[in-house]
């Protein structure tokens, strides 16, 4: 109870209080020529780019009674034939998991028309009310391959999680860019698209993750948990899971409410007189250097040196000073951002637990022999040159 009690209570509270849907049916419609009699916009998700989608008149009448949507205008468009994916049924659903879809097209797409996608979720609320949630998305199309690489969204690029396939696909994508889009340059120079400069880093992180590679020190239960966890992660959760956030705390501004900017996830960035918070959505570590200032340690831990810190604690002491309150508020803010409560683990420099902490420094060479980011980048360069030769 002392070790996991608070985390268990927090997870139970979240599970029973989050929105839950029953008997849900999801349908995906796509169309590249605008059609029908109305345009709808989601009030809560309106951005600088308005996302419109045509709907059938019966759907408009249904949605006009919903407080979430409102009718923008009535208008008639040229006819087009929408494509509808067969409904996917969920017995129960909540707001934490992500849903991944692959959409292919057979028709010719033009840059003028664009593509429109609609996801509709019909479900029953906890109160027994039948509801409809609609998400509309308008996408541009392009005829030049350079425009495709320039506009890609790296955080939603998702190759199959098979080691060889990941490396091959990454090399093929970057070789295709080098061949068709990049300016002529020396063969010894690695050329990456501006929006995909971090793709090799992400691929290496996926290959080194517990869900894909695991390790001899992992139990079957831990490996299964990691594999199941990534299958329902949304994009922000998966990004921080594969590339953890490493946040320096030794020079934190106590007057700011913002989370400090994270640094690169490498042991080269750690200072002996520093304190760093590392989180990946599942684990939360506080690494304390042996030479951290006595005043900082006194304000946060209530002792005079890092050697006196009780690393078995799972929560920080509630000390009445600005630095202590700022650090505790920061940890709570990070926990709120995640779908599960993360237990705080204190790690002192050169202690045994530091090996566990360094496992999450994904840019370094792994303790199991997995390659560092720099070595993987060199390997990718070699693969690309082999494809182009």
Automatic annotation (TrEMBL):
Molecular function (GO) terms for this protein are:
SNARE binding; zinc ion binding
Record-linked Pfam families:
Gelsolin (PF00626), Sec23_BS (PF08033), Sec23_helical (PF04815)
Q: Which SUPFAM superfamilies match?
A: beta-sandwich domain of Sec23/24, C-terminal, gelsolin-like domain of Sec23/24, Helical domain of Sec23/24
What is one term from the GO cellular component aspect held by the record? Answer: COPII vesicle coat
At the top level of its lineage, which domain of life is listed? Answer: Eukaryota
Taking every annotated instance into account, which residue ranges of this chain make up the domain Sec23/Sec24 helical?
A: 155-239
> Which InterPro entries does this entry report, sorted A to Z?
ADF-H/Gelsolin-like_dom_sf (IPR029006), Beta-sandwich_Sec23_24 (IPR012990), Gelsolin-like_dom (IPR007123), Gelsolin-like_dom_sf (IPR036180), Sec23/24_helical_dom (IPR006900), Sec23/24_helical_dom_sf (IPR036175), SEC23_SEC24_subfamily (IPR050550)
**Per the database record, which ranges form the Sec23/Sec24 beta-sandwich domain?**
92-141
Q: Which GO terms describe its biological process?
A: COPII-coated vesicle cargo loading; intracellular protein transport
- The chain positions of domain Gelsolin-like read 258-328
- Write down the PANTHER family for this protein, in alphabetical order: SEC24-RELATED PROTEIN, SECRETORY 24CD, ISOFORM C
Would you tell me the protein name for this molecule?
Protein transport protein Sec24C
Protein species of origin? Timema poppense
